[in-house]
Amino acid sequence: ESYPADWAQTRHNLGSVLTTRMLGDPAENVDRAIECFHEILEHHSSYRAMLRRSSDATTDKAAVARQVAKTTALLIQCLLRRDRVNDAVAALEQSRGVSLAELAMDVDSGGVAQNSGNSGLRAVWRDARSTLQKALRQLDSVESGPCTTTVEEVRASARRAEEAERAARRALEAEDLDFAVAHDLIPWSYSEIQDNLDNGMAAMYFYLSGSFSEVIIAFHSRSPAVLRYTEDDIHNINNAIQQFLLTIHDQASRRCSTEEWWQLLTRLSAALRMDEILHLLKGDTEDDRQPQSVVILPHERLHAVPIDILPIANRQNESLASVMPGGCSYAPSLRLFRFAQRRAQRQRDVEPFVPPALMAVQNPTCDAALSLKGAETEVHAIRACGAHSTHSVLVGRDATKSAFISHVQHFASSNAPYVVHLACHGVHSTRWESGIVLAGTDRFTVGDTIGFHFGDHCRLCVASACSTALNDSL
Questions:
Q1: Closest of 267, 213, 210, 204 to residue 241, by C-alpha
Q2: Partners of 418 in the beta sheet?
Q3: Runs of H (alpha helix) within 53-118
Q4: Is residue 203's pLDDT more than 90?
Q5: Which of 44, 197, 462, 463 has a beta carbon 3.0–4.6 Å from 468's, enabling a disulfide?
Q6: What single string gives the DSSP state of each residue in 7-65?
Q7: What is the reported pLDDT for 178?
Q8: Helices (H) and strands (E) in the chain — how many of each?
């Protein structure tokens, strides 16, 4: 029973040794290590698909996820050492897409795939899979015994069946995330990443991992651009991020002046070399191929950094957000970014637009000294914009926890779109006790959100409160 795990660990160890082997050709050693890591990931791909269908394999899932993370990190480092940037981008995209899609799957459906209604695509895939299975059985019989058909012909037939099944899976995966996660996310090549970038769009992959830390920018119609960080850069980046997070986390630092905050952001920008990143993004010439928008894909602690508003050196009051006409977006992976776009577009195509209702909480603080004077102006401005069909606002002492939950449940059961806006105080405490401060001593905490359902028609929930961007881990 332990053979698959032992085999994968052995291949992992072999690949690790090859990356540092002194004997032989260094380039050949790294290429052999890449082969080992690809074999491990291919093995784990099918094993993870099996575990996803199991409801009692939590321990195995966690162990496999850790192994895949370690192997993927080594694979990406080896690919960068060999300057195989296209393959490194594909590996980055695949690793982030699989792990986060699995997490979404576990949260949404307990790890069990749900039929999303793509019955036609599923039928095509099932037929292609059945044809492939027959071809593989025929190939097995041909190779293991006498037959009248040549082995080459059967192998060619099996290859065609495999290509047809793969194409059917790609088509279904593009429309049905549940299917993709329950089976296997087919890796994207760099050309397919380009196909999923609109004309005028770029994807900015950050990767921080010791001496092989880079920013790789993928473009719709040209080769990727690379900025490689030195060891000194990594040291500066880690220190700048640490100082930024500590300042946010420290209650006393909330009183920092605008100039002090600007200095923190400037230090982060210099550490990340944002001026060079912008140069790589925009290029040397003004032409139609210049990207107008960018999808930022952070890595590790960079998820807590507002990369799009970091000031660019030698460009007065400019940032990435201000120089990209089409704006900046954040995403964990390009695959999930595109899937979210397709899902939203299908929803718009199927359902006519209905202005959402507004459910708001306005300054529930009873203590005059802690009153939020801007909350009334904020909620009034949102109501006055005319984007909502109806309004329901809990003000002051009326904004109790029970009233808030009752109002949300009312909107959730109405089967009509609505948005929630919370203009109030927030508090950062232990992981489950952090939350929104309501009237009196009431709080709506992180723990309260477990099992709490805003309904399928809640379009947006805005927590306009202090402490909402903090986390326990620095």
A1: 267
A2: 357, 458
A3: 58-81, 85-109
A4: yes
A5: 463
A6: HHHHHHHHHHHHHH--SS-HHHHHHHHHHHHHHHHHHHHHHHHHHHT-SS-HHHHHHHH
A7: 59
A8: 16, 12
